[in-house]
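Hi there, hope your week has been kind to you so far. Do you reckon you could talk me through the fold, stretch by stretch? I've dropped the whole record in just underneath, so have a look:
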Amino acid sequence: MLLSTYENVINLFMKNNNYMSFEMLREAGVTIAQINELLDRKDIYKISRGWYGLFNVKKPDNYKMIELTLLNPKIIICNQSAAFCHGLIDEEPEEVSFATRRTDRSKMSIYFPVNRHYFSDASFDSNIDILKTDVADIRITSVDKTVCDCIRFDYQIGRDITEAIVERYLIHQDKNIPRLKYYAMQMKISKYINEYL
C-alpha cells in the first residue's frame, strides 16, 4: 500500500471517531486487500463482521457499549452494565449485558464477552435513557428499570452486589420508588423488590 493511501485511510478513521464500517470504507474506495493489510499490520482491528476500529488511539471509557451499539443501534444496555452507567456500581462488569427484542435473532458476535437478554415488544422501547457520545447514542435502561432487572437476575449477579445496587439506588437523584414498584409489578417481582427495600 502506498504511503499516501495508508495516510488517507488512517485519516478517514480519525474523521469518523476512529470507527468505520465496511460499507463506509468501500464507499471511500478502500479495497478488501487494503483492509486486510491494515489488519495484518495491526493498524486497525475487527470489532465484528462489517465494523473496524483504529488501533493505537485512546478508546473512550464506554467503548464496549459504543461498539455494540455500532453493530446494532437498537440494542439496550441493561442489568449490571446499566447499573455501572447509572453509578450504582463502581466497577464496570467484564461482560456487557444488553437486550434486543425477542424477535431480533441477529447474530452479535464480538471480541469481548457479552450477556444477551431478550425483551418483549411491550417493554422494549419504554424505560430507556440515552447516553450521548461522539460516536453513537447508547440506549440504556432507566435507573428504576435497571434496579428491577438486577433484582430479577440476582442469582446471576450475586446477592451482595444486588444489595449494594439497591443501597445506591435509594440515594440516587433520579430514583422514583412508585415507578420502581410499577415496573416490579409488571415484571412479577414485587415480592423480591419488597425484600430488598
